[in-house]
Amino acid sequence: MWNKSFEPLGVSMFIKFFNRAFFVYSLCSLGFLLGFSGLVFAEDFIKPSNPYTSVYNIPKESKKFAGREIDLSRFRPAFINSNPDSDTLSFYNYIHEDKYWEAHLSKTAVIESLYVHVVRFEVVSGVTAAHVQLRAKLLKGSEVVLKNESEEKLVNDIVISFEAARPAGESYNFFVGTEDNYLLSGRIASGSQRLSEYGEGYFTEQYEIDFSSDEALKLVLDGIQMSHEEGLSGFYNSLKPNCVTKVFDLIDAILVERGLKKPDPFLTVISNDPVAGPTIFALEERGILKERKANLRDEIEKGVTQAPAKVVGEQSIDLLPTIEGYPYSLVMLLPKKLQESTEFKEAKKTAYELVPKFMQSFVSTLMLNEAGKSTSLLRAFRGLGEEMKKGLEQMNQELGEPDTSFALYFAPWKQSNGREVDVIQELGVDAKLPIKTFEADLNFDNFNDIHISLNDALSAQAMADINFGPMGMVIHISLIKGEVSMSFQAVGHLGDFEKEMDISNDKVNISKFVVPKKTNVFNEPVAVLNLSQRLEEDLPKMRIDFGSFGGLSMRADRPQNEGKFIIHTREGDKVRGYSAPSMRGTAASISLVDVWMDIFSMEFDLESFRVSDMDVRVSSGIFGLKTAILK
Question: What does the pLDDT average to over 346-368?
Fold first, then answer.
């Protein structure tokens, strides 16, 4: 114990000074801590660091890119670093002049105008896809403040663009996006940045929409928030979610806040114009399209405000033929007892959803490089088979005792027949189909009517100078407990063309693959693709048949043909006509002898992606004189 009587004077003074100093220091420290805490609470949290500056790997669920790094030099989503109660929204990853900035947007900013952008790009001749994004133009005094380590800038616009994030060096591919491969990234950029990314050859069309400044600002804030919250956590899909469906998710949320009925979900439409035209129509349908303005490049670089008189790249051809009085429709033919039955609701829903899934996979192959089309097309069909398998398992679980079947057609249809169906309201299909849908009786007359209309469609396609023309599809489902099966067919016409080949052995030198030129509509080349899946099979069977006269059988009353497309053959004569594709060359040992291999059908092994069987007729002739030598 300390004895004060022995305490030297200097020690006593030091202790008193130390105690007072510590007290003052404690007060100062407490004041500093309270003040600092006040600052922290005012900001809500210390600003977090940007999580998208190093490495972000694609998850293992990706079919193609599992484990690979996302290209973060391009595909960074927004990352908010401000207090939700702050008057300013601050976030990282605003891209401008090819650099990432910390952006600051006032929550009382005034939006001068709000646009939906449509950027078209040609896939193949006559098929035009598009990218869709949002742009808000800010009034002077409300600009976004951009900051980095050494600079500060003002920009007067914000572009919100949802894109397919992928590894460096991988270009976008519509087909690859039909499965879980790309991640979805909501990018925030300036208009000039987006122009630099597209280059001179693309036109960014601007469609002004009728939102108040407050609504437009809320949409922008919601879009940035969506980008932040979703980050890189979800997969992009070519059908949904994608660039255009996310834009309409934001737009429709504002319309619901107005008190309007929620619009039907936007769906990429199956056509030669799957995105651009449907986007503009959807804006008109919602009553919010004001007018088209100047293209973005003309506005930013030339100060132009008026829309161009002629739009480059908007012209296209129709992929489907027009049949007077028979517009293309989805028609489900099923027994009367099923038309009002709730037991088969899921089975019907599965069938309806397979149509856009198939068309998505099928049309996407047009976007591939030539070298990858055949293999990727088979992969698309294998993927469709997997979807069919899932549907069959689901249907089998829900089946009762009665055995039955039904068919869903995509074909020309006299719309006065049958009952029009709203598949969204009645079945819960989460997409707006691009055509009307009907249910009708499963009987010979309706089968016959559809086949006649398809023959008319073929005659119409014969007038068009195109390499391939889709005509129709059918999904036929047999519902027998434990033996559920499904067949999928697509039918289309083939235009005449020749493709160089090089197949040589000791017997033949094949030099060409040829689809013969039609001489009239009765020998128009036609192909029927058949994909059949049984519940107990792991993979579907795939077969392609080629027609003799381009006709489709109307003998749908035969049990084995019920609900299916069957190509004509000559009654009593098994020799087929010359509308089938052929491989042509010469006999290796006798160069003067021409050789034809007419292909009537091909079967594919979807596990190895190889042709497993072919029905061919081998013919030969000297100087073009053709004689059949083997069938």
Answer: 64
Helices 213-230 and 243-257 meet at what angle, rounded to 10?
130
Average pLDDT in the 268-295 region?
A: 86
Q: What is the mean pLDDT of the chain?
A: 78
211 pLDDT above the threshold of 80: yes
Q: Encoding tokens for residue 176?
A: 């690859």
Residue 432 CA, distance from chain mean position: 14
Q: Please name which of 321, 273, 274, 317 lies closest in space to residue 526, comparing C-alpha atoms.
A: 321
- pLDDT 10s digits, 96-114: 999 999 999 999 999 999 9
Q: Please state, in angstroms and rounded to a whole number, the distance separating the CA atoms of residues 524 and 567.
A: 12
Please check whether residue 354 is in contact with residue 495, taking contact to mean a CB–CB distance below 8 angstroms. Answer: no
Q: For residue range 504-518, what is the model confidence (pLDDT) as tens digits?
A: 888 888 889 888 877
Query: Would you report the helix, strand and coil content of the chain in percent, each value rounded to 5?
Result: 30, 30, 40
Q: Identify the top-confidence range among 24-28, 312-316, 478-482.
A: 478-482
pLDDT at res. 401:
53
Which among 77, 101, 238 has a CA at the least distance from the CA of 160? Answer: 77
Tokens for 132? 């869709």
Q: Which amino acid is at 35?
A: G
How many separate helices (H) and strands (E) can be counted in the chain?
11, 25
At residue 296, the 3 state secondary structure works out as helix
Reported in sequence order, the residue ranges of 81-150 that DSSP labels E, i.e. its strands, are: 88-96, 99-106, 111-124, 127-138, 144-147
Residue type, 576: R
Looking at residues 230-255, what average pLDDT do you find?
92
3-state DSSP call for residue 537? coil
Q: How far apart are CA 181 and CA 383, in angstroms?
A: 13
Burial class (CB in 10 A: 0-12, 13-18, 19+), 90: middle
Burial environment of residue 193 by CB neighbours within 10 A (0 to 12, 13 to 18, 19 or more): buried
SS3 state at 302: helix
> How far, in Å, CA of 259 to CA of 273, rounded?
32
Whether the predicted pLDDT of 86 surpasses 60: yes
Write the secondary structure of 404-465 as one string of H (helix), E (strand) and C (coil): EEEEEEEEECCCCCCEECCHHHHHCCCCCCCCCEEEEECCHHHHHHHHHHHHHHHHHHHCCC
Contact between 440 and 418 (Cβ < 8 Å): yes
d(CA 329, CA 446) in angstroms, rounded, equals 14
Single out the residue of 411, 392, 443, 359 nearest to residue 175, CA to CA: 359
Q: Is 582 helix (H, G, I), strand (E, B) or coil?
A: strand
Check pLDDT > 60 for residue 458. Answer: yes
Are 333 and 463 within 8 A, CB to CB? Answer: no
Tokens of 355: 């149509």
Distance of alpha carbon 507 from the chain centroid: 46
CA distance linking residue 113 with residue 136, whole number of Å:
6
Paired residues of 583 in beta bridges: 513, 597
Burial classification of residue 612, based on how many CB atoms lie within 10 Å of its CB (0-12 exposed, 13-18 middle, 19 or more buried): middle
- C-alpha 86/C-alpha 628 separation (Å) is 84
How far apart are alpha carbons 346 and 147 in whole angstroms? Answer: 53
Note whether 594 and 624 are within 8 A (CB).
yes
